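Take a look at the protein record below with the fold in mind.
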Amino acid sequence: MAADEIRGDTAGTAPVPLSVLDLATVGAGHTATDALRTSVEIARLAESRGFHRYWVAEHHSMPGVASTSPAVILAHLAAHTHRIRLGSGGVMLPNHAPLVIAEQFGTLEAMAPGRIDLGLGRAPGTDGATAAALRRTDRLNEGADDFPQQLAELTRFLDDDFPDGHRYARIHAVPGPIQATAPGGVQDPHRPPVWLLGSSGFSARLAGSLGLPFAFAHHFSAQNTIPALDLYRESFTPSDVLDAPYALIGVSALATDDEKEARRQVMAGALSMIRLRTGRPGLVPTPEEAEAYEFSPMEREFIDSWNSNVIHGTAEEVRAGLDDLQKRTGADELMLTSHAHSGDVRLRSYELIADAYELPQTRTAQA
């Protein structure tokens, strides 16, 4: 697999490639349809402004997050874009049979050849009860403990290279390489590159030992970012995929036309997170609701901690914050995620950040 299917090119004055992570957030008074329409608009903006990739995260049983089915959303985005890389950030591998993921992403690769990334995580992307419903088992640790084995199985399905005698040797993920071996068969040379995602050291070490690209969730585990990236680089072993480490970090970033409005929007996102963390998940509240909310001292402490890792303000303030973060971490790519009540605010944020980095403006053909 060519490294250029993983490494991106910088654009404008950005220090590294910039990308987008989307949760398809649903604000109060809006529908999932509204959120997914916004996802299309942001993906098309990202493509037209030179962002490198657009990933969709898997979450479940959260009213304010519509990205429960990344493969379905990615198929929709593929129909509305032409060049930008599309992928999962990520698919939670223990929630799914490896063969199913290989089939889904083989199908996506057939729809958008050379543009699909397969990012994998080992967390459930939800609470324990929902994870049990997804996996049809209450033995939730089993999925995480078996992650390396599941990863190896998925990779063999993608490459169609189970050894003779293996119980899956005669099972093939379609679309996939098996089609090239059939009489008259022709198979696209691309297959989705696999990324490992993480918020601690486990996936960092595994990604490094396998020579895979690594994506770290700085946006909700900032204290672990530098230790995890150091561990990834120290444990990295060159592979057919990469000859050197390549790590991106997910970053919460929100730019608005003035600093005060950025604070209002970020407070709404923080209130949404408080409700999620205390077992009361809901739609993303309006800034007005957040302003009227009486935060307890403990909640105020949580907000101060949470918002300290959200880079927000004017476009220039966000640019400065992103530049500083990239220098401190040495990240090879920054993947920006925005949390706001309104889709228009999120769309405007990416536009402002693109302008701050002087990203090129190219026309996107109508899909």
User: Anything to note?
Assistant: The chain is about 45% helix and 15% strand. The two ends are 29 Å apart (CA to CA).
